[in-house]
Amino acid sequence: MTHANDAQEAFWNKGPGQRWVEYQPDLDLLHAEVTSLLLTEAQAWPGMKVLDIGCGAGASAFAAAQAVGPEGQVTGADISAVLLDRARQRAAAEGTENVRFVLADAQDADLGGPYDLAISRFGVMFFADPAAAFANIRRHLAPGAHFVFAAWSAPGRNPWFQVPRAAAAARLGAPAPADPDAPGPTAFRDIGRVSGLLAEAGFADPEGHAVEAVLPHPGGIEAVLAMMPYIGPVGSMMREKEGTEEDLDAILGSIAVAFSQWDGPGGLVIPAEVNLFSARAD
Questions:
Q1: How far is it, in rounded angstroms, from Cα 226 to Cα 114?
Q2: Which end of the chain is more exposed for a tag (fewer CB within 10 A), N or C?
Q3: 3-class secondary-structure state, position 181
Q4: Are β-strands 267-281 and 203-217 bridged in parallel, bridged antiparallel, or unpaired?
Q5: Do the domain assignments include residue 242?
């Protein structure tokens, strides 16, 4: 069966997706504040039925499940079977009964519902046709339900992307030109563009605002450097430029120097900026 986002399905189910499973505890730590910001913005309350789009290994779905309580229900949808396997394992281990996980391409799948709220933490920037995906999500919401999601702001506002990319480019040369609006982590950096996509999809009152955040890791620089060859721009640039182990060591060394300004007794705390979006289903 083909889906609207076959390239993303392959990415998140093979090598890169497996790495996200491997580093799930680290990513949950780094994204914990963003999860909190998202749930505060979404204002989930007990008894709600919530759809979490691009739920990955489940951190945002578990946070929503706690907010809606045992009388509520959370459905986490993702295109990655390997990440959903981890989410289900965690739910079973933690005894979380008011959350379920479904394998689905949210751009065109039947997502169930109707839901009182849809949320996403860094899960909606990868659609081949974001307006079509938003329209499909809207069809699964109850009238008046809200859609609230977090997306990365511009790379220049996020050292998590900017520092590794600059270090890799300095060593390997600049990457090939790419469409900045193509599916990817920072595709939703432009608040006006995304608000327009939500309006095109039939949502009312679309809006977004940038919020300062931090990405903390108590393990410090070494714990974060271990992820860099596999998560973020370093790995893709190494493959594109056919980089060597010597190149990788040099790149990681440059990243360590740059990140040292945010390292302290409590670990590494990287400044970040995310865009929080909200819209209402009529």
A1: 41
A2: N
A3: coil
A4: antiparallel
A5: no
Rounded CA-CA distance 81/104 in Å is 9
Q: Does any domain span residue 63?
A: yes
pLDDT at 198: 98
Question: What pLDDT does 14 receive?
Answer: 66
Nearest-CA neighbor of 98 among 48, 148, 152, 37? Answer: 48
DSSP-assigned beta bridge partners for residue 152? 274
- What parts of the chain have a pLDDT lower than 50? 1-2
CATH number at residue 86: 3.40.50.150
Structural domain count of the chain: 1
Residue 173 domain flag: no
Nearest CA among 94, 59, 95 for reference residue 76: 59
pLDDT computed for residue 143 by the predictor = 97
Q: Does residue 160 belong to any structural domain of this protein?
A: no
The candidate with the shortest Cα–Cα distance to 129, out of 189, 187, 75, is 187
User: In the block, which residue shows the tokens 């480019």?
Assistant: 169
Long-range contacts of 15-20, Cβ-Cβ distance < 8 Å, separation of 24 or more: 16/230, 16/231, 16/235, 17/80, 17/82, 17/83, 18/82, 19/230, 19/231, 20/56, 20/57, 20/80, 20/83, 20/231
Quote the domain boundaries for residue 38.
6-154+179-213+273-281
The answer to whether 79 touches 105, Cβ cutoff 8 Å, is: yes
